[in-house]
Amino acid sequence: MPTKRKGKQTVKIDSPISIISTASIVGPKEGQGPLGIYYDMVIEDEMWGEKSWEKAESKLMKETLSKIINKSGKALDEINYILAGDLLNQCTASNFALREAGISFFGLYGACSTMAESASLGAMLINGGFADNVVCITSSHFCSAEKQFRFPLELGSQRPPTAQWTVIGSGGVMLSNQGIGPYITYVTTGKIVDLGVKDSNNMGAAMAPAAADTIVTHFKDSGLSPSDYDLIITGDLGSFGKELCEELVSKQGYDIKSNYADCGMMVYDSQKQDTHSGGSGCGCSAVTLAGYLYQEMKKGKYNNILFVGTGALLSSTSAQQGESIPGIAHAISIQNKFE
Amino acid sequence: MPTKRKGKQTVKIDSPISIISTASIVGPKEGQGPLGIYYDMVIEDEMWGEKSWEKAESKLMKETLSKIINKSGKALDEINYILAGDLLNQCTASNFALREAGISFFGLYGACSTMAESASLGAMLINGGFADNVVCITSSHFCSAEKQFRFPLELGSQRPPTAQWTVIGSGGVMLSNQGIGPYITYVTTGKIVDLGVKDSNNMGAAMAPAAADTIVTHFKDSGLSPSDYDLIITGDLGSFGKELCEELVSKQGYDIKSNYADCGMMVYDSQKQDTHSGGSGCGCSAVTLAGYLYQEMKKGKYNNILFVGTGALLSSTSAQQGESIPGIAHAISIQNKFE
């Protein structure tokens, strides 16, 4: 067994791989949310001067990429790979955002787990000696996602309490073999989990079993326990999904109640902003990582985070064909100290 | 610079990473094609007992995965990762095919470059010490692809000469740090190239510039030349795209005419099978690699192949919004001798 492997689904990143820069650009609603001060930029409306929501989403990622690179101080030719994906059919938000970058590109599809997926692969590419600097980035857009996955926005469909609100935003990080942390130290890669949930207005419930599975597997594989983390944070389970995840993890003998949060529940004030169960979309965990989490780690509020991206692997076609919703979750440990 | 890097976009895989097993299952038309004898299985009709084309495509991949694993002699728990993707919206062919596998999963979207993309990342994950065995797999299905990207099949739309025919098939490989070759020795990861082609009935032209860019970059980065390969083979440029690629590579000073082929032109007899410019789809290069190329390398007909997966990164939404078609190409060197 290669020495970097720990247990069934986890690897130890055994050289210091730093997050050297992050950036996030969000929509107006996100800017007004509780984490508003942490974003690099808030756009004034969801079109941002473009002719379609899809083009606006691409622009979000393109400009976020530009900020990540500028803040890193790295030249374009020092960046070896971009790893990116999004929710749009054929990941066109990413494809069009990155077409002028001139950097080797690996396209990913992990639904809302994409931020964690890209950072997992990015850290391994650097730790494996294949790269010095890698950008990991993703995006989502409420309007392009609603249009594609649910109903025309113009219908004004009523939303059940379990529904979540897709974040308008792009967030990403640059990983590097230079830098002073925070470091990505463990990568636990999820397997697909499908317990038969079919309600696409209750994605939290569909993703929670995958999240719980990855969290428990991470502890078993690494030998770490919940108390080794200041914060265990899932991507976008929302209030219903978070409760379910907590319960499923607890059934396996791990108590995470005291230090467990969910990006989907932090990104909006769901009471005031009418977002029901919380935020969702690839952008949800990405802007929270790039904004709030990164900055609070830098300040020392958090020193050890288990960041768990969560994705619902359905399409509107699979839903129409009566299929259940497979979920997946990828976890990375982010620590201020490399040991 | 990490020592594994060679030039701008290439890495040298510096430990012997073998392809230890491959499998391919194809549709009836593919089974009747010139490479028919190389596939593991030919299904009788495009539904394969399922209720939808999408479900049939998932079944193709699920059964292909099963064959790859059986032929490898590896136990399920020896496989550390599956890397997969496909053309369906949100990559549902892969998500549903792999949901019962219980193996860490990285979802990819590289359009028809997915076979090369997955093998690139798979080889790096093993070479980097993160895995012993990795499965890289993809699929496509003429009916699900036509329905999603073009017109309802029932319309019987006329196809221009530049149109290609999406392969019904799934193909994949298992990579391992044990085994006796063929070995993946170089990985050249493409950047997105978009020269403004907008005709989604001429994907070959859209992808050819990316293919040429990656091929030329591979030679520059690695110091190898066209004569170091028995065969340079692109994924699915078809006859129009292949000609264009050859010309673009030649303009950069590399003559590949004598040893250059395209999977899209080999998978069908386009005269007899009325497939116009040739085959396409993620399955096209995947079943050709898993079938013909792998078996002919094993027999020694080929010893050094440059396998170049080619993808057109559009969606029907981006096409409707007047966007051009970004292309990408990923190359891997496959060699019988590890040096």
Helix/strand layout:
2 copies of one chain form a homodimer.
Chain A: E1 5-6, E2 10-12, E3 18-26, H1 28-31, E4 41-42, H2 53-72, E5 81-86, H3 92-97, E6 105-107, H4 114-127, E7 133-140, H5 142-149, E8 165-166, E9 169-176, E10 183-188, H6 203-222, E11 231-234, H7 238-251, E12 260-262, H8 263-266, H9 270-273, E13 279-280, H10 282-299, E14 304-312, H11 316-320, E15 327-335
Parallel strand pairs in A: 3-4, 5-6, 5-7, 8-13, 11-12, 11-14
Antiparallel strand pairs in A: 1-2, 2-10, 3-9, 7-9, 10-15, 14-15
Helix pairs in contact in A: 6-7
Note down, in words, how this protein is organized.
The structure is a homodimer. In chain A, helix 6 runs parallel beside helix 7. Chain A is globular and about 55 Å long. Chain A has 2 domains: about 160 residues, Peroxisomal Thiolase, Chain A, domain 1, CATH 3.40.47; about 150 residues, Stage V sporulation protein AD (Peroxisomal Thiolase, Chain A, domain 1, 3-Layer(aba) Sandwich), CATH 3.40.47. The first copy, chain A, is built from 11 helices and 15 strands. In chain A, helix 3 links the parallel strand 5 and strand 6. Chain A starts with a strand and ends with a strand. The first copy, chain A, is about 35% helix and about 20% strand. Chain A is α/β, with parallel strands linked by helices and about 350 residues long. Chain A has a 7-stranded mixed β-sheet, sandwiched between helices. Chains A and B meet through helix 3, strand 6, helix 4 and helix 11 of A and helix 3, strand 6, helix 4 and helix 11 of B.
